[in-house]
Amino acid sequence: MRPEILAPAGSLDALVAAVRCGADAVYLGGKTLNARRGAGNFSDGELFAAAEYCRARGVKLYVTLNTLISDNETEEAVSAVKRACAFGADALILQDLGLSGIVRECCDLPMHASTQMSVQTPSGFELLRETGFCRAVLPRELSKDELADIIKSTSLETEVFVHGALCMSVSGQCYMSASLGSRSGNRGLCAQPCRLPFAAENGTGHDLSLKDLSLLRHLPELAAMGVTSFKIEGRMKRPEYVAAAVTACRMALDGEVSADIEAALKSVFSRTGFTDGYYTGKRGKTMFGTRRREDVAAAAPVLSGLSKLYEKEPQTVAVKFTFECKKGSPLKLTATARGKSFEACSECVPSPAEQRGLTAEDASAQLSKCGGTCFYAAKIDVMLDDELYVPISEINRLRRTSLDGLLKMLAAPPARSFNYNSEAIPAHTAGERVFYARFPSADKIPENLDGVKKIMLPLSCKTEDFVKYNAVPELPRGIFGGSEAVLNKLTELKNAGIKEAVCGTLDGAALTKKAGLEFISGFGSNIYNSRAVSEAERLGASEVLLSTELTAVEAARIGGKIPRGVFAYGRVPLMLTRNCPSSNGKSCAVCRKSGTITDRKNIVFPIECVNGCAQVLNSCPVYMADRLGDIKNADFLLLNFTTEEKSGAESVLNSYRHGLPPKGGFTRGLFYRGTD
């Protein structure tokens, strides 16, 4: 089956451009609760109009509700789902685990898992299927072989980004904008701080800014793999960009992309050109780029030419006309398309012809004039008595009336059920609060562990270290292509007596369950509301770590049964990236896991290497030892040690035992200021 071309629509003009240039589907969002809140987006009335426009032309429409929602936004989200049912959306694109549970229970709208859900492995996609999703948007960081492995291993539809902006971080695992400026990428307001100067030693100077992705040359290969949908990024971009990208994808699927459209696509928007480095496995310095002055200037000369791609309505919907002209009876014209028919009747009764009578050829010539509409006459049946006169204007009027009526029938939304049970999730009452401590290696664990109930170590540590400290393995959030190694290590640990693991993604949860262990939803799980806690429990989580983007007050109000904790100390991992910024300046052999990146204010951010990925850590740790009274209704406090030596960890533990004030640089995180 030919893959779908899925286009972005940040405005009605962009939607029209996408449809007229041949998109099979579009994705768009309302004014709130979507990952591009800075786009023009659609009012309620515009959503209905957009759905009618697409449906009449046989184009699918997917609605983005792909952000984390707070408990206070639950009713708003439910209203958005109900509205999507009413105007006939073809699917919802979701990130929030809690919202997916609501959708699954209240309506029959198909659910597509946003790339913000950070799922990278066949096991993770199987868990998505069990959760009720029918499609998943795959991470941009996957290689050709990794994509192929997932596609052949899952029954889910697969959606792959083939053109548009590349975030440095794995989607759903970026907390930089929120941590540095309270504008959350997980809440749709990323300020894109990664596009500012961040310099690795001997690097590019913009070592968090990637070129835009373009896989146009690989589309036939991806189609052969069985990809369901080719997705174009760009809801923040202008209609001409959408027109160029859709046209280029259509040409690529047909076997050839013209040099002209490729040049226009690069001119209308690029960051020093394009990259396919993740797909080809050629990661590194050549993938990095910025939006230069000359890139901006290149757009103006191509805009008028690109606008011509969508200035006229193409005739894409095949219609069958059945025209009846019988003696003594009013004229009738029936227009049929996609299984729907509209009959137009005239008050005009044909009269005997005084000279030349109407012929079937005459009638067909008028009925075939469908210009200015989305229809073309694929077949015309004429039932005509001889020697009758009919005004040509009346045939034209019938044609217009029948097509208008048929268009409305095609645009009508399908009937969808909606039944929301607003049963409240019970409030949570925490037990005695304890400390959980995560260390980067066993040799960083201090001797005095008073008050620490659980120790966590990276999965890569030695099995004997886990046994010695009865430690809980922390699975990497980046598992790209490494499922088998993770599963083997978990099985080894289970055989050694370990009973649970910490998982920051659904990939980790799925693999942990497969190994027969319990799992804790850890950092990266984005547990942001009460319903997400309940959904995590339904999937098998024994405990959850709440999102670091919640304020202390918001976290305290989160309901649900299972124990929960908060990130109370440590450097928050701001980004998880598969393209190490430090390697832009020096090799791994030289770096030896000591990489850093420095911003334009000379603030230094450490880089932590984990399972072939890099974590950019915050420049200073969250510190709440002297404010523990402000953290309420939490069962455990996570102390996350990363760059600290053993003595430093000992000092921090002592400070948290006694509520001591901070020493040196620190942040209160988002406990008080929260996110927009």
> From the helix content, strand content and strand pairing, which structural class follows?
alpha/beta
The tally of beta strands, per DSSP, is 30
CATH fold name of the largest domain: TIM Barrel
Using the alpha-carbon principal axes, give the shape.
elongated
In CATH terms, the superfamily of the largest domain is: Copper homeostasis (CutC) domain
Low-confidence stretches: none
- Average pLDDT confidence is 96
Total of domains: 3
CATH architecture of the largest domain: Alpha-Beta Barrel
What proportion of the residues is helical, as a percent range? Answer: 25-40%
Highest CATH level, the class of the largest domain = Alpha Beta
Name the beta content range: 15-25%
Distance between the ends: 42 Å
**How big is the Rg?**
29 Å
Supply the number of helical segments: 22
Your description of this structure?
The chain has about 675 residues and is α/β, with parallel strands linked by helices. It folds into 3 domains: about 5-165 and about 210-310, TIM Barrel; about 315-410, no CATH class; about 440-445 and about 450-660, TIM Barrel (Alpha-Beta Barrel), CATH 3.20.20. α9 runs antiparallel to α10 (about 260-270) and α9 packs across α13 (about 300-305). The relative contact order is 0.12. α16 links the parallel β19 (about 450-460) and β20. Strands 18, 19, 20, 21, 22, 23, 24, 29 and 30 form a 9-stranded mixed β-sheet that branches. The protein has an 8-stranded parallel barrel with strand order 1-2-3-4-5-6-7-10, surrounded by 6 helices. A 5-stranded antiparallel β-sheet has the order 8-26-27-28-25.
